[in-house]
């Protein structure tokens, strides 16, 4: 199951960089809480809107490492990645993703990024 979460997270990165916002939107739970590097908190609706209107664009995401652990219907992934966004700004981030299984499908319920590595 851990491998499934690791692969899902990588797929999410691919969807973000290729503009497949529908797939990202489907993965995000309606109650998603996204805590940005700055401490700003965004809802699913707010973040999807920023992606669709291209106010925020993921140009490249290079995962450096990641590990996941599944606890029943909850999974926690911790990773490090270099995010190239909005035409060239690069952020080396540590991130935590929390997933829950709803209707037999993994949904991202919490995403928290911080600088560091």
Report Rg: 13 Å
Largest β-sheet summary = 6 strands, mixed
| Overall spatial form | globular
User: Helix coverage percent of residues?
Assistant: 25-40%
Key structural traits:
alpha+beta, 117 residues
Report a brief summary of the structure.
The protein is α+β, with helices and mostly antiparallel strands. It has helices at residues 2-18, 21-27, 44-52; strands at residues 28-35, 41-43, 58-71, 74-85, 89-102, 105-115.
Describe this structure in words.
The protein is an alpha+beta fold and about 120 residues long. It has one domain: Nuclear Transport Factor 2, Chain: A (Roll), CATH 3.10.450. The protein is built from three helices and six strands; from the N terminus they run ααββαββββ. It has helices at about 1-20, 20-25, 45-50, and strands spanning about 30-35, 40-45, 60-70, 75-85, 90-100, 105-115. A six-stranded mixed beta sheet has the order 2-1-6-5-4-3. A hairpin with a 3-residue loop joins strand 4 (about 75-85) and strand 5 (about 90-100). The longest helix is centred in the first third of the chain and has 17 residues, at about 1-20. The radius of gyration is 13 Å and the shape is globular. The termini are far apart. The model has no long low-confidence stretch (mean pLDDT about 95).
